[in-house]
């Protein structure tokens, strides 16, 4: 039985690489999957070849070559292409369920772990009784340690960034990997010590220094395990830590024992005995740990034999010193430390440090595909552009326009001067508004939109109910082992959002009930519309028939007020034109795409192209919208001044106008029709927002439902007697068909839907994006990958 540790493989499982890659190319790029048939086949073949379950030297090149391809693939693809990758935890039994993640960085990390394990297994098969065998074993242990070091310092850093810490498999935790790394370095140093002490018969002092370095490395490995969390400690076999601690004390004892021989040869008999006391203490510790820890028989026999040898030499040295030399014996605490000599440092295989050299003659996989980082940078830019357009330009302009309309309605303008200037007939502005409503077939348009909003709300509710039915079924199957708390929390948030949205829908419907009569009146013919607006008895201000002494003053204030209203109207029209120009620029904004692709093409083939590399380009391109933002903001102060002037002038106008009930009745009628038009605009805008809101939410809930189905299917595999597995197969197709029939045709939302900001009583609610959880939801891990604390 070997007296050195061996790291087993993380058992891997077949992955549907070809289908996942085909689906990703089809759904996420403008390329055709058939153009990458060779790449799909090559990737699948390399993975299968590197999954060998028996240690063989030929596996080294295969695994290094596959790792090199993964490094390159990760420059072309995001980590999540919906490819489910499964590995069992190391040291687990065959009955342990694998951990499944949709993460290519997980695949790379697992391949590196298994390469480090392969080197350790190959080292254990070498004949360490021969010069060549022990040299090769040392080399393999150095390469094993180097591989684990590369995994810890390079691959795991990217896995930490891309994967939530709680979802990272514990056997890929940095503390776990570093402990194994140090154990492999210690075993390489032990092999070097064995060659120096047993085969080369080097001087005792040098052998002592080599042994002390072995002990130091084992101690570091053991300390990491002892300081790790309980969940990390329990991953190791029960005798692993005991083995390492036994070796730590064993080689500390060897170092003192060899130093004692060196002291005796130098006639330092007191120091010799002091070293023997130290060696005996260390050997006793190792013996006690080995006896309690159930270590391998060879390890126990080694430390037992060492303890007996040290005890015998101690007895002999005590007798000689007592009878012959009479030298003072230093205490163990006062002994000088034995300097350590490392001769077998870790070695990172060249194919890992330079992946390009390990690809082989066939070339790289996905070499003709543009890097995902450039495409993602373009998507991020487009998202930022849309957000900037919506918040800083479109919404900002709409809010300023709403402020004008609200202020004028509060002042009964322009109805009050329309009633004075045109005592009979209808003002042109009102006629234009009525025509707009008639051409839109306003009432019918609103009724149809209300029905569509209600239908989509019901569809979203049905999607969420179906998802909850799946979760409830899982819960009833195995309440004690239930692991869907995260999904049920998401469902509760979605339910709350739906409830709030439906309350807003009801508010819009009530607004329509209140405004319907006025909007339908606007659809009447001009002659019928004139009948609902009474004529005033006062002569118009421009008429020569006016005999009112204050008429001239009223006329003066009316003209001034009309001029201010025209200035406000011009300002709003100019602002609306600014918004239209910005929208036209955004629609034809292809410069950033060309710039990013040009820069990406100039980077090296193996460059890790991330979206952050293009932040400068994105910032510069977004800067061209500053002129429109400034134009919108620049009108804010001017608008505030005009509204102040309107308010002051309106007071003068009202004070100068004679009391006339017919004018007031006409004003009220014109104001009611003007208010009906503004309600019509507001309601149609609300309904448009609602339709987009529910369409986007339907895509999110459909994703959520699929995640719930995947979860329950996984659980049903754990519980094969469950009838859930049979029922879910039919449910999946049926529910999906129903969702496709009920949901209106729409594009899949690119980002979390957020309703436009609005006044609480006038629009649908604005919800924070953090409430949505709209990212793609991977299927839940099996029991072995449940959230760990």
UniProtKB/TrEMBL annotation:
Residues 3-415 form the BRO1 domain. Pfam families: ALIX_LYPXL_bnd, BRO1. SMART domains: BRO1. Gene3D superfamilies: alix/aip1 in complex with the ypdl late domain, alix/aip1 like domains. InterPro entries: ALIX_V_dom (IPR025304), BRO1_dom (IPR004328), BRO1_sf (IPR038499). Residues 723-738 have a biased composition (Polar residues). It comes from the Eukaryota. Residues 720-789 are annotated as: Disordered. Belongs to the palA/RIM20 family. This is BRO1-domain-containing protein. The lineage of its organism: Eukaryota, Fungi, Dikarya, Basidiomycota, Agaricomycotina.
């Amino acid at each position: 039985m070997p007296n050195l540790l061996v790291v087993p493989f993380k058992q891997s499982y077949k992955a549907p690489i070809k289908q996942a890659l085909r689906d990703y190319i089809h759904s996420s790029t403008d390329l055709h999957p058939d153009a990458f048939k060779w790449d799909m086949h090559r990737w699948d073949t390399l993975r299968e070849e590197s999954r060998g379950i028996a240690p063989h030297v030929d596996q080294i090149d295969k695994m290094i070559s596959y790792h090199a391809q993964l490094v390159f693939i990760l420059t072309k693809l995001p980590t999540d292409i919906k490819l489910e990758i499964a590995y069992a935890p190391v040291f687990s039994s065959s009955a342990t369920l694998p951990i499944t993640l949709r993460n290519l960085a997980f695949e790379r990390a697992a391949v590196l772990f298994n390469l480090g394990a392969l080197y350790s297994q190959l080292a254990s098969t070498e004949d360490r009784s021969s010069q060549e065998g022990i040299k090769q074993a040392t080399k393999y242990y150095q390469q094993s340690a180097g591989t684990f070091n590369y995994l810890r310092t390079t691959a795991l850093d990217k896995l930490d960034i891309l994967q939530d810490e709680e979802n990272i498999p514990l056997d890929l935790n940095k503390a776990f990997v570093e402990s194994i790394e140090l154990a492999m370095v210690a075993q390489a140093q032990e092999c070097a010590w064995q060659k120096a002490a047993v085969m080369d018969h080097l001087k005792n002092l040098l052998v002592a220094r080599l042994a002390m370095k072995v002990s130091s490395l084992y101690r570091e490995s053991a300390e990491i395990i002892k300081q790790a969390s309980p969940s990390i400690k329990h991953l190791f076999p029960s005798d692993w830590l005991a083995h390492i601690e036994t070796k730590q004390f064993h080689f500390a004892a060897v170092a003192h024992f060899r130093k004692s021989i060196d002291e005796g040869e130098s006639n330092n008999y007191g120091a010799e005995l002091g070293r023997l006391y130290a060696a005996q203490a260390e050997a006793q510790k190792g013996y006690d740990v080995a006896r309690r820890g159930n270590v391998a028989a060879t390890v126990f026999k080694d430390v037992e034999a060492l303890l007996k040898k040290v005890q015998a030499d101690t007895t002999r040295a005590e007798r000689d010193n007592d009878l012959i030399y009479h030298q003072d014996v230093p205490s163990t605490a006062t002994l000088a430390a034995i300097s350590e000599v490392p001769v077998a440092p870790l070695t990172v295989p060249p194919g890992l440090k330079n992946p390009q050299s390990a690809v082989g003659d066939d070339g790289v996989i996905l070499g003709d595909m543009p890097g995902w980082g450039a495409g993602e940078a373009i998507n991020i830019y487009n998202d930022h552009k849309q957000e900037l357009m919506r918040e800083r330009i479109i919404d900002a302009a709409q809010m300023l326009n709403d402020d004008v309309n609200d202020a004028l309605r509060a002042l009964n303008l322009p109805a009050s001067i329309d009633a004075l200037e045109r005592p009979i007939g209808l003002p042109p502005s009102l006629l234009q508004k009525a025509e707009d409503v008639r051409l839109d077939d306003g009432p019918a348009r609103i009724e149809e939109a209300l029905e569509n909003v209600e239908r989509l709300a019901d569809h979203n509710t049905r999607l969420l109910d179906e998802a909850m039915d799946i979760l409830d079924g899982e819960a009833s199957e195995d309440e004690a082992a239930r692991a869907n708390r995260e999904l049920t929390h998401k469902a509760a948030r979605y339910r709350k959002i739906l409830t709030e949205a439906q309350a807003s829908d009801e508010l819009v419907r009530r607004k329509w009930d209140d405004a319907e009569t006025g909007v339908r009146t606007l659809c009447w013919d001009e002659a019928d519309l004139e009948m609902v607006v009474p004529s005033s008895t006062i002569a118009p201000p421009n008429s020569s028939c006016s005999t009112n002494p204050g008429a001239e003053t009223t006329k003066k204030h009316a003209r001034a007020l009309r001029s201010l209203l025209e200035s406000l109207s011009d300002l709003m029209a100019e602002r609306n034109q600014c918004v239209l120009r910005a929208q036209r620029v955004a629609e034809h904004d292809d410069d950033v795409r060309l710039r990013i692709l040009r820069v990406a093409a100039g980077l090296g083939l193996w460059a890790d192209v991330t979206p952050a590399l293009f932040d400068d380009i994105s910032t510069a391109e977004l800067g061209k919208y500053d002129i429109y933002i400034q134009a919108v903001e620049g009108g804010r102060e001017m608008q505030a001044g005009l509204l102040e002037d309107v308010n002051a002038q309106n007071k003068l106008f009202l004070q100068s106008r004679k009391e006339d009930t017919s004018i007031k009745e006409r004003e009220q009628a014109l104001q009611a029709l003007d208010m009906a038009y503004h309600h019509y605009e507001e309601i149609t805008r609300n309904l448009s927002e609602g339709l987009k809101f529910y369409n986007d939410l339907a895509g999110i809930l459909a994703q959520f439902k699929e995640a719930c189905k995947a979860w329950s299917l996984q659980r049903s595999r754990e519980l094969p007697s469950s009838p859930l597995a049979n029922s879910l197969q039919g449910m999946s197709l049926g529910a999906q068909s129903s969702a496709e029939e009920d949901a209106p045709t729409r594009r899949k939302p690119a980002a979390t839907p957020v309703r436009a900001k609005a006044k609480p009583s006038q629009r649908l609610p604005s919800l924070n994006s953090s409430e949505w959880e709209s990212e793609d939801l991977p299927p839940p891990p099996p029991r072995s990958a449940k959230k760990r604390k």
